[in-house]
Amino acid sequence: MVFLIPTLNQKIKTLITLYRSELKSPLLRKPIFFILKKLGFKFHLNLVTRDELLSNKHNYYVKEFGSEELVTANEAHVSEKTPKEIKENFFSFTVKLDKPFVCEIPDAELVGSTATGFDRNGNIITETIVPFFFKEGYLEQNVSIRALALKNFSRPSAIQLDTACSLVYPWAKNYWHWIVDGLTRIEGLEAYQEQTGIKPTLIIESNLTSWQSESLKLLGYEPDECIRWNESRVQVKKLLVPSFQRYWGYYNKTYKTYNQVVSPMACRWLRQRILSNLPEAETEQMSFSPKIFISRRKAVQRRIINENEVMEALAPFGFVAYALEELSFSEQVRLFSQADMVVAPHGAGLTNMIFSENLAVIELFGSYIPSFYIPGFALANLSRGLGFRYGCLISECHPQDSRQIHADIIVDITELRDLVAKMQNV
């Protein structure tokens, strides 16, 4: 990779200012790249994509594990008022997912706040950044300015690890991404250890959330025994990069993009491992309803304004409301593991359906769903890919709420009651 800055002395102050801005908000990465380009900064980013890793298996020591899988998603249940463009995304489909893999990058480096991986030639390993194909401008949104600056303007670190694997990446603090993109990669880490007899060092965030720490422990990894990432620069003799077990599946002709599909086999592996390690004493003391409503009353967005009316309608079916913020990670696992039906506003908390075995899911959306978001109905595809029954209910947003996709919503009680009854009898 080459990072060229003409008239560096004249622009160094601008770079420092934008660099500091990025540290305050990673969401500024894309506009920062845009501003730098307008000022004459030139970026030549050489990438090693997933396809290139697989086509150069010898150079990157790619080790496949597991097996290919066919993912079949059944047609979703939607209300009569659901817009046509929404319904079009919920027909059944079957896609083939390739074998997962883990590769060994020799003489690599991890650089910057999100531990961007570089090979010995300075190429960015995209599998250390995001689990999907790059669209225009998407790389700029996920590659840290700090990583580029440290890589090109700082001396190589004296710290060198032998064999290591990083769970640090741009979206690791998001619950959905941590579960489906982070924890599922541990399967590749353990496949490598099984094939080679070498136990890699695990690199994790310096400031873990409680649910990150607890989930790692349930997988058998004590955070205190891992390396905490210091957001700088480290050399790694053998950098292990397990593939993200989330793929772009079938092509959506209407929106000219690919719908994402999470590997059901990876989800089942994760479910089995975590459930097998749940503390017995804790599970014996818990009693949850098998029909659960996930309340967002403690959230700052996508809350249900008429939640009391919703619960009055759901109570005769046996539903009980739970706020996930009040539960530990283990308790959330337990809650979903025994559930047979869940109703919830769209949100990362539904990721917990991974820990269920036989589930009916009703996801509640506001009426504003932008076209770019529709093909990314990730939770819907996750549910259907796992063989669960899935329903979608579009409701009105609060008329004075301008937050669009994040607006609070008013659920149509009659439609909700009808959809629950329909799905309960399937």
Describe the structure.
Helices cover 33% and strands 24% of the residues. It has helices at residues 8-24, 29-38, 50-55, 57-60, 84-87, 138-142, 145-153, 175-182, 186-196, 210-218, 264-276, 280-285, 307-314, 329-337, 378-385, 413-424; strands spanning 2-4, 42-44, 47-48, 63-64, 69-73, 77-78, 93-97, 101-111, 116-118, 124-125, 160-166, 201-204, 227-228, 233-242, 246-252, 257-262, 291-294, 320-322, 341-345, 360-365, 389-394, 396-397, 409-410. Strands 4, 8, 9, 11, 12, 13 and 14 form a seven-stranded mixed beta sheet that branches. Strands 6-21-20-19-17-18 form a six-stranded parallel beta sheet, sandwiched between helices. The longest helix is centred in the first third of the chain and has 17 residues, at 8-24.
Report the major sheet.
7 strands, mixed
Global geometry = elongated
Q: How much is the radius of gyration in Å?
A: 23 Å
Number of helices: 16
**Class per helix and strand makeup:** alpha/beta
Mean pLDDT: 83
Q: Terminal Cα separation, in Å?
A: 55 Å
Low-confidence runs: 1-13, 18-25, 27-31
Task: Estimate the helix proportion, in percent.
Answer: 25-40%
Number of strands: 23
Percent strand equals: 15-25%
Secondary-structure topology with pairs:
Elements: E1 2-4, H1 8-24, H2 29-38, E2 42-44, E3 47-48, H3 50-55, H4 57-60, E4 63-64, E5 69-73, E6 77-78, H5 84-87, E7 93-97, E8 101-111, E9 116-118, E10 124-125, H6 138-142, H7 145-153, E11 160-166, H8 175-182, H9 186-196, E12 201-204, H10 210-218, E13 227-228, E14 233-242, E15 246-252, E16 257-262, H11 264-276, H12 280-285, E17 291-294, H13 307-314, E18 320-322, H14 329-337, E19 341-345, E20 360-365, H15 378-385, E21 389-394, E22 396-397, E23 409-410, H16 413-424
Parallel strand pairs: 3-10, 6-21, 11-12, 11-14, 12-13, 17-18, 17-19, 19-20, 20-21
Antiparallel strand pairs: 1-2, 4-8, 5-7, 8-9, 8-14, 15-16, 22-23
Helix pairs in contact: 13-16
